């Protein structure tokens, strides 16, 4: 694989940035990768494990001379970072991000960026419940979707270059508009995370009340289902604060469905429960057969390439 951007700057050195750093190195996609982290400990770790050749205390220093800047901070931190880096960006540079919500990032970052800088928001549908600079790995994006939500000003050549960079890390790219992205992710990621967090809260509440061993003897369904509730609280706080409308919409639909099942249980309506589970099992199996999922613990797997492709 060949160099696509000479100098890549990663802002915020957590799970996603460290995975990008490993993947870029693995595939030889940049001449140098530099970074910014707020804490001295993260800066030291990034150098120690070779994520970056240089790590800066400020984002402004990190973006100087960079051809590609990737904002890898929680969605709520994007505004302040964009304001800080804007005067220091190289003319012609591309700025992208990996935030889990897109319209809020566009609103927060777009207005700060000077003309002549290409802004192309993005979101890898790949991750884990772990965070920090040691959590990343080079293959995180392989066969995963990476959604791009270009804005009106995004130039096709700049989008094509970013697309080739992301594809070289193994991801499959699809473009969509930001509101659509935010609704789709509210269904497939944001609301499920909220429900998982809630279920852990319920189990903990029960443990305290009954002194029983809910967590100790939790069946694998509980463990699988609540894995994502170990994810970073700052990141998820920001997702719900910034994708408010879509998550409230989906949560409303979820609650209605849940009430319907609750009623069926109360009424002893076995036919209704059986029909419901039969239908949803078929839907879930259909998702697997369509290649949108596997037994991998996380979602967002893109279809495997066709033989010979
Ligand atoms: N964790 C996941 O599975 C995925 C996360 N994302 C998105 O990627 C972004 C980064 O997430 P992760 O890498 O998972 O998080 P992380 O928690 O591993 O890393 C984020 C880093 O940003 C730093 N940070 C926070 N505020 C900052 C600020 N104001 N200035 C500088 N640094 C700051 C934190 O100290 C941390 O080192 C988020 O926007 C998240 O929504 C996207 C796809 C998957
Ligand atoms: O760990 C998991 O299963 C995830 O769901 C990871 C994830 C978290 C947030 C995103 O915006 C995308 C992917």
Description:
The protein is an alpha/beta fold and 309 residues long. The chain has 2 domains: 5-176, Rossmann fold (3-Layer(aba) Sandwich), CATH 3.40.50; 180-267, 6-phosphogluconate dehydrogenase C-terminal like domain (6-phosphogluconate dehydrogenase C-terminal fold, Orthogonal Bundle). It is built from 11 helices and 9 strands. The strands form 2 sheets. The protein has a 6-stranded parallel sheet with strand order 3-2-1-4-5-6. The longest helix is centred in the middle third of the chain and has 33 residues, at 178-210. It is elongated and about 65 Å long. The model is unreliable at 293-299 (pLDDT under 50). 1,4-dihydronicotinamide adenine dinucleotide binds at residues 12-17, 37-38, 42, 72-75, 77, 80-81, 98-100, 123-124, 127-128, 131-132, 135, 232, 235. Residues 12-17, 37-38, 42, 72-75, 77, 80-81, 98-100, 123-124, 127-128, 131-132, 135, 232, 235 line the site of 1,4-dihydronicotinamide adenine dinucleotide.
